[in-house]
Design brief:
This protein has 17 helices and ten strands. The strands form two sheets. It has an eight-stranded parallel barrel, surrounded by five helices. It has a two-stranded antiparallel sheet with strand order 5-6. It is α/β, with parallel strands linked by helices. The chain folds into two domains: 289 residues, Aldolase class I (TIM Barrel, Alpha-Beta Barrel); 112 residues, no CATH class. It is globular and about 65 Å long. Helix 4 crosses helix 6, helix 9 packs across helix 10 and helix 9 crosses helix 17. Strand 7, helix 6 and strand 8 form a beta-alpha-beta unit. The structure holds zinc ion (ZN). The site of zinc ion has 6 residues, from loops.
Length: 416
């Protein structure tokens, strides 16, 4: 089973926007972009919402059937590990193996020896075609990288075999994610990690490294754009080299996690992907939930009241909601509007503060990030919230589709 060149990951926390999300992919296809839909949901999201993995499969199948989508589509068991994977096995055909927990753990000395033997051919000045300066690979770098990542690669092998034993090899797409770690991986580390993955027999088709800079949830990238461009370009050369040298599927591509709303990166990623002629997977999740809140606010009346109530609830539970996401949000509490103030806002004021239009003076990224992690408040409302999604479905769907198509897929993948 081989993944297509371009795939786009969409999360839908409350499982109501599948058709609106697919509509964005269909519209992109009509504009000549050969992109395929992936519905992703992590165990963390499931446990906060109180949903089960089969609901994602049901939603994807229903959306695809209703739209008459006749091509491939994927259901991604996002950020799973050995403890959480079992519930996802039946319904998923894409597995994101999260091995961040094993990063920095000691690996078995025999595995270290096998890795160093496999990497021996690259010791010295490692020239990767397309990258100007050779990387200097020495014994110390191998030891250091093994100490950091080998236990994680071994664990990825365990998870992969656990899934393959039940589903059969070659019946699903394997992604390896090392994005939720403390420190970005350099291009040469990425190559060494790929050696490890090939050693342990993980046929990864997508890999999600941690890139330089901050990928905060639902807002733009914060970091050095030039440095990002250099690193992303080098990573693409590394992947091409790994396909040739290490026997990875020729579909191996980068996956950009927390990929929503990184507007300043999209022209760079677009340019590099076109130049390399390579594939791309971009994962988004919470951006769709925010469009639900925007749609409710735009609807006015009870929809607006509900949106204001969710903000008040999120504000009241600030510590609890932000703690699990501390490394991927940057909220200045002083810049959060008081719930009393928000209670007096018009529909327009609420929408302008929340919608990600960087040039809009009233746009407030602090407000947006708090609502991004505030979906637990809506989950607790249960049918009061999902009922409102149904009542205001048309206006919400329009926002969901527009956001994914015009703010994400087109800037990322259209040819200039
Ligand atoms: Zn991730």
């Amino acid at each position: 089973m081989k993944i297509q060149k371009y795939t786009f990951g969409m999360g839908d926390r409350f499982a109501h926007q599948g058709p609106a999300q697919l509509a964005a992919v269909v519209a992109a296809q009509q504009q000549g972009i050969d992109v395929y839909p992936t519905w992703n949901k992590s165990n963390r999201e499931h446990s906060i919402i109180g949903s089960t993995p089969d609901t994602v499969r049901a939603e994807a199948d229903a959306a695809v059937q209703a739209a008459g989508w006749g091509s491939d589509y994927y259901v991604d068991a996002d950020h799973i590990n050995l403890k959480t994977v079992d519930g996802f096995i039946a319904g998923s055909n894409f597995f994101t193996l999260d091995v961040a927990e094993q990063v920095g753990q000691a690996a078995d000395p025999e595995a270290v020896a096998r890795f160093k033997q496999a990497a021996a051919a690259y010791v010295g000045d490692l020239v990767i075609p397309g990258i100007a300066a050779p990387f200097h690979v020495d014994e110390a770098l191998l030891d250091q990288t093994a100490a950091q990542y080998l236990a994680a690669a071994v664990e990825a092998g365990r998870i992969y075999r656990h899934i393959a034993a039940q589903k059969g090899e070659d019946t699903f797409i394997t992604e390896v994610s090392i994005d939720e770690t403390d420190r970005p991986q350099t291009p040469v580390e990425l190559f060494l990690i790929l050696i490890m993955l090939s050693q342990v027999g993980v046929p990864a088709q997508t890999i999600a490294p941690k890139f330089t800079g901050r990928f905060n949830k639902g807002v733009d990238y914060v970091g050095d754009l030039e440095q990002f461009e250099k690193e992303f370009d080098e990573d693409l050369h590394v992947l091409q080299f790994a396909i040739q040298q290490l026997g990875f599927p020729d579909t191996l591509k980068l996956s950009v996690h927390s990929g929503s709303d990184k507007f300043s990166l999209y022209p760079i990623i677009n340019r590099l992907v076109q130049r390399h002629g390579c594939g791309l997977h971009v994962k988004t999740a919470g951006t769709t939930w925010l469009e639900e809140v925007i749609g409710l606010a735009e609807a006015g009346g009870d929809g607006l009241e509900l949106a204001k109530g969710i903000y008040a609830g999120a504000h009241a539970h600030y510590e609890e909601l932000t703690a699990p996401y501390a490394t991927v949000i940057d909220i200045d509490p002083a810049r959060l509007p008081a719930p009393d103030e928000v209670a007096a806002w018009s529909s327009d004021a609420f929408v302008k503060a929340l919608r990600h239009e960087p040039d809009e003076a009233a746009y407030n990224p602090h407000f947006r990030q708090l609502l991004h992690v505030g979906f637990k408040v809506a989950a607790k409302l249960g049918p009061r919230f999902t009922g409102a999604l149904e009542v205001h479905q048309a206006i919400i769907a329009r926002n969901v589709t527009h956001n994914l198509l015009n703010r994400h897929i087109l800037p990322l993948l259209s040819r200039s």
